[in-house]
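Case study B.
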Amino acid sequence: LPLDVQEEIECLYEFVPEVEKHFEVVDKIGEGTFSSVFLAKLREYPNVDQMFALKHIIPTSHPSRIEGELRCLLEIGGCDNVMGVELCMRNKDHVVIVMQYFPHEKFQDYILHMSITDVHDYIKNLLIALRRVHMYDVIHRDVKPSNFLYDRKTKRYALVDFGLAHKAPVTRSSNKSTPSVKTSLTRKQGLLTESKKENTNTCSPDSKVDSQDSLSPDNKSRQYTPDINPTAYAKKLKSPRRLLLAKRALLAKEKQDTRVVSKRSSSSRYVPKACQCFGKPQVCSLCTARSNQNAPRAGTPGFRSPEVLIKCPDQSTAVDIWSAGVIFLSLLSGRYPFFRANDDMTALAQIVSTFGSEQVKEAAKACGKHVICCPSQAPVNLKTMCMRLRSAPLSKATSKKFLKIDPEAESSWKRMPDSAFDLLSKLLDLNPLTRISAEEALKHEFFSEKVF
Ligand code: ADP
Ligand code: MG
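Model:
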């Protein structure tokens, strides 16, 4: 073992002595933002072949985050391609989650070896895992290849890493259609509710979000007033009672804005007035002075859905379906990562350039947001794009890496069925309200095609 790994293992033994008592840690298998994962075997039972993955969570993680992760593994995991938990050890602020070791390779090492049948099976199994998680009204929030482990030899799959998971503030009606789910929802109502009490609808403080964007415990996203033009809004409302309510809401919002502005520029007295920039490609001083809209944005760039990028506070399990769609897009095009962006606006621009500006605008409207795109951009045809990318010559580095691609796998890409792209477009529906659910997606004709 390299010296630094040996040192890390020694540190792990020191932090949580129970680990050394029961396990012989033999290697390090992964490192994420919030943890290091080690490979270990049982000391007391040398004849047991089962290996274990020990996830040592960084001690600065918020206890509610650790609690949430454990609850998900415990209550949701253990079936339907969702990783379960065997044991958890704690010493002071160090927590080690023990799971069954799941052999897997890196996505970028097998993506081009996969045939269309492999991709079919992979997406089906990912959707089976998501159907399970979404039954509990839990959003995983970090669906990406490194959190969906795939053992190519045994054709097994495991969704891991519930570090960013949280209860969905908005329930999708189709999730509750199965009676068995209703039972488990009642039985497992405790799931994540404790952490929810402290941290309503929030990402945990240390999740993959900018601190200014994470919701503070007192920030109730359900009390969201959309950013609207007061006059346009008033015109839309015909009934006097609704008009009165709208006026009250606007007054309250203006009061809030006044407070924020006066805090920032205490020297000049602030007089509330109608915003000047609504619908224009500019931001007026009134709007720059507004308080930030808070919405959960935990996750990994490139896999964030449009509603996360435009800061919709009412997010649902549809967030994970988008990420699954991005993985499917990678697999169909043979390109990983498909979207690569350092900030949310660049990520949104990449979505616009693939799915079209009018389409993004329409979807944003459904979320109560107004998006301005300049210049406008037509959508690309997903099938044509994927076929082109698939047949384009590989870069030098990639072709060196994939020297021996199975000819059968390669030729299978000439028979991409249209149903694959129909499913892809439904997973990557820009509007979260109409985006397909995991349960519905599993009934899609792509999964009943005879060719697979
Ligand atoms: P993080 O929150 O730090 O991303 P993860 O739970 O995703 O932590 O684990 C990091 C990596 O460790 C994973 O991408 C995977 O490669 C490996 N890993 C996690 N759990 C297991 C497991 N049960 N078996 C094998 N490898 C695992
Ligand atoms: Mg991870």
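Residues 240-264 form the longest helix (25 residues). The remaining cases will be described in the next quarterly update.
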